[in-house]
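Please decode residue identities from the backbone states below.
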């Protein structure tokens, strides 16, 4: 991570095709099974309009009926190689309203996939650290989920 630029870059290898990893990253029925930072939090709401200008909305819950909601707009969609989207939390999260950007590259390496996630424009280092924890947890779950697909 680059604290001075407030940019987070996570690279992860997957022994699966990029089509499979891309589908796991973009289909609501798949996202609900893995997209969460840890096992105490689940993705309860997953709406995805996968096209440039399309929007998404995710609601994370801990089973108590409340949800933390993040939403954004797809700025670039290249199936199955690249996604760029805005990322903004809704209130009451402290970071609500801060618009950050996520780029996900799905690099094809002879049938394997290197996923490169870049999340940037954080308001402060604390926000970057929270997202680093969340993304690292989620990408670990993605690795497990892809094995089951």
């Amino acid at each position: 991570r680059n604290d001075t630029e407030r940019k987070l870059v996570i690279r992860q290898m997957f022994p699966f095709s990029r089509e499979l990893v891309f589908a796991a990253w973009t289909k609501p029925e798949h996202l609900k099974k893995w997209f969460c930072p840890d096992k105490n939090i689940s993705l309860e709401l997953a709406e995805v309009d996968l096209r440039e200008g399309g929007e998404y909305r995710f609601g994370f819950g801990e089973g108590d009926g409340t949800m933390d909601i993040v939403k954004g707009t797809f700025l670039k969609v290249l199936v199955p190689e690249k996604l760029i989207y805005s990322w903004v939390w809704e209130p009451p999260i402290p970071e609500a309203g801060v618009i950050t950007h996520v780029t996900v590259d799905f690099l094809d390496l002879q049938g394997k996939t290197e996923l490169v996630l870049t999340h940037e424009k954080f308001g402060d280092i604390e926000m970057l650290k929270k997202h680093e924890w969340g993304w690292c947890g989620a990408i670990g779950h993605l690795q497990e989920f892809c094995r089951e697909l």
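Observation: The beta strands are 7-14, 42-48, 55-61, 67-78, 82-89, 100-109, 112-120.
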